[in-house]
Amino acid sequence: MKTTRLFDVIQYQLEKNPLQKCISAKHIKGHTYSYSTQEIVDAANKMSLGLLKLGVKPGDKVALISHNNRPEWNIMDIAILQIGAINVPVYPTIAPKDYIYIFNDADIKYCFVGHGDLVEKVVKAQPQVNSLKAIYTFDKEDAGQTDANGNDINHWETLFVNGDTAPIEALKATIKTGDLATLIYTSGTTGNPKGVMLSHSNILSNLDAVVPLIPMVVGDEALSFLPLCHIFERTVIYAYIKMGVSVNYAQSVDTLGESLTEVKPHFFTTVPRLLEKVYEKIVTGAKTQGGLKASIFFWAEDLTNQYEFDFEPKGFNSIKWGLADKIVFSKVREKLGGRVKGILTGAAACPRKMAQFFSAIGVPVREGYGMTETSPAIAVSGYSKNLALLGTVGPVIDNTTVKIDVNEEAYGPNAGEILVKGPNVMMGYYNMPEKTAEEFTEDGWFKTGDVGKLIKKNKVEFLKITDRKKELLKTSGGKYVAPAPIEGKFREEFLIEQFMVVGEGKKFVSALILPAMDVLLEWCQNKGISSDSNTAILQHPKVIEKYQHLLDKVNLEFSKIEKIKKFVLVEGPWSVETGELTPTMKLKRRVVLEQYKKEIEGMYNV
Length: 606
What we know:
606 residues; alpha/beta; Rossmann fold; Luciferase, domain 3; GMP Synthetase, Chain A, domain 3; eight-stranded mixed β-sheet; five-stranded parallel β-sheet; 21 helices; 21% strand; globular
C-alpha cells in the first residue's frame, strides 16, 4: 500500500510486517509495557471515535504534552490525524507564558498530558485560554483533579469508544497528502514561538529520502529518548514504524545507561552532548583505573585519531587495531548494548571527535542537519561507503535541493547562507503570512539562516555547516568571526559545559564559560582545593589558571581574530527552564548577553 498520509504508516506495518511488540516503553514508575501493531491500530480507532463523540472536527487543534516518550503519544497522534484534526505537540519545559501564547494562537480545543507538573501547568494557563474545553491525562494517578473551570480531569482511556469504524474511514478518505497535519511551535532565540505548519507530504517526503539510509531490518530494536514533540524524533519514529522496527522508549534520559543494556538497541538517535557525556564517562573511568589498564585504554584511544569514514587499517597497523578492538573497543560497545549498527545525531553540531571516536570503535555515528521548517532533514550522512565525510553533515537528501547564497567577504570562500527547495519545506508559519514571506526568496527558496558550503569528495557533494547567519560577529576592526565552530571546539573539553563567544563591535573576542561543575569539583578535590560555595570555587586562582591553560591550548587551532582573549567563569545552570537555552538546546544569545551584561563589560573595561 502507498503511504500518502501519516496515519497510513501504521497501516503499512500492519499489512507488511505486523509486530507483536510494535512500541514499548519503560514507565516512569519502572514497569515496562508494550503494544502490538494491531493494538496500536485498535486503540487509535477507539480514541478517534471518542474524539468524534466529543465533537472534534477536521481542522480542530489538539495538544499533546509529555515529559517522556510513550506509546500513548503515538496512539493519540494517529487518532487525531485520521479524523482530520491537527496534532499540536508542545514542549513540556517551556515557560507558562509560552503555554498561554501557543494555546491561544493555535486555538487548542483539548489537551492530553503526561505525568509530573504538566496538569498543573495547563490548569494554570487555562483561565487565559478560552478555547480549551477539557484536559485529559495519560496517568490514572493524575485523574480526578479538577481544571480551572471546575471540570474533572479524566484518564484518556475514558474517551475510548468501541464501535463501527466507518465514520473514521469516511473522514480518512477526505484527507489529502498536502493537508495540514501538525503545528510545531519553535521556541526561537527571540520573540514568541512560531507555529510551523507541516503537511502529511512534508514529513512523508523525509521518510522516503531517509529510510533507505538507516541500516536496520524488520524486527530490529530501536531505542528512543529524544522528545517526540520535536520533529527530528517524531519523523524517525514514523521511519521505524514503516521499516518494521520495534520501538523502545527509555524511561528518561537519566536512565539511558540502563535502557541501553536492557534493550540492546541496533540503532538510536541522539544529540551530540549525550555522546560527549558518554565519552567523558569512559575516559574518566579509564583514568580512575590508572596503571596498565589506563595506559592500554589511552593507547587504543589514540589510535582512533587516525580514523576517517571508510578507513581500513593496513599491514601492521591492522594488527594494532585488531588488538585494540579485542581489549578496549569491544568493551565500550558492550556498554552501549553490544548490537549498535548506527547512531544518528541531530539538533546541534556534532564535534568531529565524537563522530570519529565512536565510529572508530565500531559504533558508526553519523550526523544529520535540518530544521523544523524542513520536516526536518536537509542533509544526512549515510552508513554506506562514500556517503559520509567527517566535518560535514552529509549529502543533501534525495528530492531536496540546496543552493549556497555565496558571500565570501562575510563567510569565506564558497560559503554563504544555505537555501533549500523541496517537498519537505513547510507550508508556512501559522497566522504569520508576513513572517512566512520573509523566510523565502522571491523565487521560492527557503532561507535557513545557517551558513555553509558544499564540499566534493569521490564525486559526492557534502554539506558543511560553518555558522548561523544571525550569530556571525563583526569586531570593531570589521573582521567577521563565526562563533559556532569556536564554541563547539571548546565544548569538547571535559571541564566545559557551555561556552559562548562574545565580541560584537569589540576590539577582540571573549567568552562566557559555564563550567561542568561535577567534573570541576572532582578536579578541585584532587588538587586539594576546597570551598564552601561554587561561587568561591569559580573565583579561585588555581581554577582560573586551569581554564586559562585550556584556553591557551584550544586557541592554537584558531586564527588571530578568532582567538579568545579573555573569559569569565559563570554559574549556571543554563537551561530551557531558566531561559538561556531553547528546547533544542541552542543558546539564546540575547538572553545570555543581557543576563551577563556586567561580566561582559568587565572583560572590556580594563
